[in-house]
């Protein structure tokens, strides 16, 4: 295993939805020992602290349901720049924060990939496809818009245009189980790979992931992984405001991370939607840290026994 320089960037973004709490996510990951878990695997760790949004400016949407628009635009500006810089310096791990942070993180790492003349790929591990735009969202929650943004869809007035939009055929989604009809149609139209939980139940999770990784490898691509807490079943990961039953099991999630590590293709990572206010004695934060460790090389027989007694 080649050691990485892992750059931790806290992104306490809480503007993408109405239920507060995700701004506490970066502190929860640090308390759960993410830096130590990474260092124990032989990687370097550079914690750059928590980012802040750019100064917000007045912003209005034609969709009256949208909220947090100006703040989310400001976060996107600063996260894009920070992600591009971090991708040039090492392996960035973005500690969220709600999923609207991925408007900036993916735009930033994709800009770096373009500068390196490499294609950017995205593995989206989430119960939701997040393929709305500010004009189509009924909830007004901008954490449901990042994939539409970084694939270059229209409707993001006021946001900085992504410098290097990611083509839909370079995006693979796993764990879907809550998809609006309009989103489903858009995903099919743009060639995004869709693997919902029924398909995973029927065929397993390894085969489609290996096929996607082969596509990344064949083109010498950069691979960004965006891991939403609600990819996981709420029975093992309760600390999320968007719980959907029937998510990935403990073993399925670790298998994904182990296969990603084996591939050697991952170049950046989002950890998003952790709401510590909803957690149970830190179990969700601890699981997300353990999954990160699996992605970075921890083997199944290396895992510590834990007791919560």
List the helices and strands and how they pair.
Elements: E1 5-11, H1 25-31, H2 34-39, E2 44-50, H3 69-89, E3 91-96, H4 102-115, E4 120-125, H5 146-150, E5 171-176, H6 181-189, E6 193-196, H7 197-203, H8 206-218, E7 222-228, H9 250-263, E8 266-272, H10 283-295
Parallel strand pairs: 1-2, 1-3, 3-8, 4-5, 4-7, 5-6, 7-8
Helix pairs in contact: 3-4, 8-9, 9-10
Verbal overview:
The chain has 309 residues and is of the alpha/beta class. The protein has one domain (5-301): Arginase, Chain A (3-Layer(aba) Sandwich). It is 35% helix and 16% strand. The chain has helices at 25-31, 34-39, 69-89, 102-115, 146-150, 181-189, 197-203, 206-218, 250-263, 283-295, and strands at residues 5-11, 44-50, 91-96, 120-125, 171-176, 193-196, 222-228, 266-272. An 8-stranded parallel sheet has the order 2-1-3-8-7-4-5-6, with helices on both faces. The longest helix has 21 residues, at 69-89. The radius of gyration is 18 Å and the shape is globular. The two termini are 35 Å apart. The mean pLDDT is 95.
**Low-pLDDT ranges:** none
How would you state the average pLDDT, rounded?
95
Terminal CA distance reads 35 Å
Total strands: the figure is 8
The CATH top-level class label: Alpha Beta
Core attributes:
16% strand, 309 residues, alpha/beta, Arginase, Chain A, eight-stranded parallel sheet, globular
């Amino acid at each position: 295993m080649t050691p990485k320089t892992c750059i931790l960037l806290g992104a306490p973004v809480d503007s993408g939805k109405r239920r507060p709490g995700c701004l506490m996510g970066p502190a929860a990951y640090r308390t759960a020992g993410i830096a130590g878990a990474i260092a124990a695997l032989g990687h370097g760790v550079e914690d750059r602290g928590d980012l802040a949004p750019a100064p917000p400016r007045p912003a209005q949407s034609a969709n009256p349901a949208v909220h947090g628009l100006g703040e989310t635009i400001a976060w996107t500006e600063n996260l894009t720049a920070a992600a591009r810089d971090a991708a040039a310096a090492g392996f960035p791990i973005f500690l969220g924060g709600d999923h609207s942070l991925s408007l900036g993180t993916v735009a930033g790492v994709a800009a770096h990939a373009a500068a390196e003349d490499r294609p950017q790929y995205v593995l989206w591990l989430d119960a939701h496809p997040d393929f709305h735009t500010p004009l189509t969202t009924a909830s007004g929650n901008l954490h449901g818009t990042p994939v539409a943004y970084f694939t270059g869809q229209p409707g993001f007035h006021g946001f900085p245009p992504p410098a290097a939009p990611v083509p839909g055929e370079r995006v693979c989604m796993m764990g879907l189980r809550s998809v609006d009809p309009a989103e489903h149609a858009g995903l099919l139209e743009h060639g995004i790979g869709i693997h919902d939980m029924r398909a995973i139940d029927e065929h397993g999770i390894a085969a489609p992931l290996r096929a996607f990784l082969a596509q990344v490898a064949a083109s010498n691509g950069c691979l960004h992984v965006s891991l939403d807490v609600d990819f996981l079943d709420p029975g093992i990961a309760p600390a999320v405001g968007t719980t959907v039953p029937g998510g990935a099991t403990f073993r399925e999630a670790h298998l994904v991370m182990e296969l990603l590590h084996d591939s050697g293709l991952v170049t950046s990572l989002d950890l998003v939607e952790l709401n510590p206010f909803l957690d149970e004695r830190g179990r969700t934060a601890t699981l997300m840290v353990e999954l990160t460790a699996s992605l970075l090389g921890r083997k199944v027989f290396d895992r510590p026994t834990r007791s919560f007694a």
